[in-house]
Design a protein that fits this description.
It is built from three helices and eight strands. By secondary structure, the protein is an alpha+beta fold. It has one domain. The two termini are 14 Å apart.
């Protein structure tokens, strides 16, 4: 359900196909956004794909998947930006909190999630964890859960 809502939100915010009178410049961005979304597993297939924890947020829409072994994938800005980081060992800065910090290709990432009830701003879906993601100094707040 959550993936469907995010896809609908992304589709609504994606550039519209050009009309015959317009230049077709918007089509590659829409195709790239759709392609990025298709690379992310659905909630139903995430565990089988190796995802351990998924975080989501709104305004702009984003998804971060923390895989069990090798990587962290961040899909940001309604799917326009896809970043992949090596998965590092977590730290536990406070009781009930888990943090991952990583760097790749000139980008930095910090993810902190804590056991605290959270509600998705768009769907109203309840999650067991509140999440803060900091990408290159930009802070995104959302919710998450183990998959």
């Amino acid at each position: 359900m959550r993936a469907l809502i995010l896809v609908a939100a992304l589709a609504a915010c994606s550039p519209q196909p050009a009309t015959q009178a317009e230049a077709p410049a918007a089509e590659p961005a829409a195709t790239t956004t759709q392609s990025a979304l298709e690379q992310m597993p659905t909630w139903e297939t995430a565990r089988a794909a190796g995802v351990d924890f998924r975080a989501i947020g709104q305004e702009p829409g984003w998804i971060v998947d923390i895989y069990t072994q090798d990587r962290i994938v961040a899909l940001l800005d309604y799917g326009e930006t896809r970043l992949e980081f090596p998965r590092t060992e977590p730290t536990y800065p406070a009781e009930g909190s888990t943090r991952f910090e990583s760097q790749a290709n000139g980008h930095t990432l910090s993810i902190t999630y804590r056991r605290f009830p959270c509600e998705d701003a768009m769907s109203g879906q309840a999650y067991p964890s509140a999440v803060e993601v900091v990408v290159d100094g930009r802070t995104l707040n959302g919710c998450g859960r183990s998959v």
